[in-house]
Amino acid sequence: MAQQVIFVGSSANDGTGDTLRNAMVKTNTNFTELYGLHSARSHAEYNVPYGDVGPVTANDTEQFVHDGSPVEFTITVTDVSRTEVLIIFSAPSILLSGAQGPIVIQRVVSGVGTYIHGFIVSSIDNGYHMVYEDAHGQSVGTEITYKLINITGSGGVGGVVEFPTTYGFQFCGREI
């Protein structure tokens, strides 16, 4: 939609501008469009709340789990103009049992997994906080699942990676 301009007339109170009602209708229409452009259509998350004592953990080559549940989230593409997912990952602390190397975010579409982003863990890590934009290019209605995978043995030393959840844990995404 094109911007709806409010006609204010040639001079104050000359009767040639929009009525107050018409001006407010145009204002609401403009704001509705702006909010529609900038708000997330699809949002999903895997959160472990502050104070939960069960760690998020994975052995080398495995998907991370928490209390037996896989650490992942799924969104559905809702708009052709939204071609990216903003991924947020926050883990305040990390424990490594011999592991050094990459942890990856895997995008799964129609059963096919692709590693889209990785970060390296080493023996001196104090946790991770990152934001990543995935330009997925999928069509409207497509379900996309994002998984967190430990592949420390690939280009590194395999082992257990654990994110203690005393201070919480977040792995989420929203369509942008």
Roughly what percent helix? Answer: 10-25%
Based on CA atoms alone, the radius of gyration comes out at: 23 Å
Strands side by side in the biggest sheet: 4-3-2-12-7
Overall spatial form? elongated
pLDDT < 50 stretches? none
The largest sheet, given as strand count, sense and whether it forms a barrel, is: 5 strands, antiparallel
What's the end-to-end separation, in Å? 19 Å
Given helix and strand content, the structural type is mainly beta
**How many helical stretches?**
1
Order of helices and strands: HEEEEEEEEEEEEE
| Percent strand | 35-45%
The average pLDDT value, as a whole number, equals 88
Q: Quick one: how many beta strands?
A: 13
How would you sum up this structure, described in words?
- The protein has one helix spanning 20-38, and strands at residues 43-48, 56-58, 65-66, 69-70, 72-76, 84-91, 95-97, 101-109, 112-121, 128-135, 143-150, 160-163, 169-175.
- With 176 residues, the chain is mainly β.
- The strands form 3 sheets. It has a 5-stranded antiparallel beta sheet with strand order 4-3-2-12-7, with no helix packed on it. The chain has a 4-stranded antiparallel beta sheet with strand order 1-13-6-10, with no helix packed on it.
- Strand 3 and strand 4 form a beta hairpin.
Blueprint (SSEs and pairs):
Layout: H1 20-38, E1 43-48, E2 56-58, E3 65-66, E4 69-70, E5 72-76, E6 84-91, E7 95-97, E8 101-109, E9 112-121, E10 128-135, E11 143-150, E12 160-163, E13 169-175
Antiparallel strand pairs: 1-13, 2-3, 2-12, 3-4, 5-11, 6-10, 6-13, 7-12, 8-9, 8-11
